[in-house]
Design goal:
Two copies of one chain form a homodimer. The first copy, chain A, is mainly α and about 200 residues long. Chain A has one domain: Tetracycline Repressor, domain 2. Chain A has helices at about 20-35, 40-45, 50-60, 60-85, 90-100, 115, 125-155, 165-180, 185-200. In chain A, α1 crosses α2 (about 40-45) and α1 (about 20-35) crosses α4 (about 60-85). Chains A and B meet through α7, α8 and α9 of A and α7, α8 and α9 of B. The structure holds a DNA duplex (30 and 30 nucleotides).
DNA sequence: AGGTTATTTTCCACATCGGTACAAAAATAA
DNA sequence: TTATTTTTGTACCGATGTGGAAAATAACCT
């Protein structure tokens, strides 16, 4: 019998570029310039492919963005899940702020958060994308809220917090940290602010 | 004799539109769609003037945005000043969050904050505007920090807060509230979050 | 080798972008 | 009246935007 290889080559001319690394390049461009701010010229240059090649491999710009967004989310999904599974609400809050706030040291990626600055506003033509990113933000907030609802049952929330408002508060703060980061506020400054948020965390 | 009116008319055809209300219309368009998301077609339609008229009266798009931004800031300047002059840090924080967070009921204006969503990211061509808005955000943070430094001298800050991080924290949270608002999160929800932030404010 | 299939390149289509030249229109000044 | 000044609408500019058609190319399979 013939061994079922991991991937069997499909007939036809093999592509000359690595689809995944091209997609990653596109993701970084969208991340930095936003959906409408990223032109096809920016994208093709970073992806090192020609325009029709991009078109053939990824479809139109909107589809490409969705795939890039999916990759972005996938790259961070593990960290999110880990954060949500931390034992205490305080630990979750801190992990969330450091993560979503985009407060990290890696200089290889753009500052800020794809989901925040990818299409916060824009022309009517990109309304669908704007709504999609807003939905993702809302879903994240809901995940937080559900986790905090569990925490409330299991032993209470800090201070006088309720799950919903606490989730909204953390989501907003995280988005705001991303805004500041995107605007050039250095990570140390933002980290220092988060430090003191945690230091003043209610019992 | 003819009465010397407050302003004597200059020769030439008088303009047929009100410059100030046209500028206000432009401000609302920039606020809603952002700098690059707002096309000249959007602007001229809302301002109810033709493209050459816009050019003669306001210069290019970038100059128009600056003037619209100036109007936006002017409309809120009084509220900012009032907030900064409140007696306690807690009162300042609450006023700031309600104001800058864009958590207000007026349905006549777009949601979110001009300074946040006007040009958070975008093409390289609009980098100047992006930086300008980021500067305005930073200046606001500095104003807060200076006020908190004064408060520290006069009697201490709540919890273990220091002026710099506290200012950064509030700025970020306000920007984040604006992001959430821009994404369609209803004002009541955001106000509820702010309510609990204040309820858990450290002594 | 021949045939098939997919990719790549060259060139192009068409809308929209910000920005303007021009002359008619409407007011004041002489 | 005539001249001057300023605004206004029409029509247009080059550049860039996204999106594609069609032919050339390069692998695979028999």
């Amino acid at each position: 019998m013939l061994s079922t290889l991991p991937q069997k080559r499909s007939p036809g001319r093999p592509r000359e570029f690595d689809r995944d690394s091209a997609l990653k390049a596109a993701m970084l461009v969208f991340w930095r310039y936003g959906y409408e701010g990223a032109s096809l010229a920016d994208l093709t240059e970073a992806m090192e492919i020609s325009k029709p090649t991009l078109y053939a491999a990824f479809g139109d710009k909107e589809t490409l963005l969705r795939e890039a967004l999916h990759m972005y989310l996938g790259l961070h999904a593990e960290a999110y899940t880990t954060a949500l599974n931390l034992p205490t609400v305080k630990q979750i809050a801190e992990a969330w702020l450091r993560l979503v706030g985009g407060v990290r040291e890696e200089a290889a990626v753009p500052s800020g958060c794809f989901v925040v600055q990818g299409a916060l506003v824009g022309s009517k033509a990109s309304r669908v994308i704007q709504d999609e990113l807003a939905s993702i933000r809302n879903e994240a907030t809901q995940k937080l809220e559900q986790r905090f609802a569990r925490a409330k049952q299991e032993g209470g929330l800090p201070g006088t917090w309720e799950p919903g408002p606490l989730a909204q508060y953390l989501s907003a703060l995280a988005s705001g940290l991303a805004v500041q980061s995107s605007g050039g506020v250095p990570p140390e400054v933002l980290n220092q602010a988060v430090d003191q948020v945690m230091a003043n965390w209610p019992k």
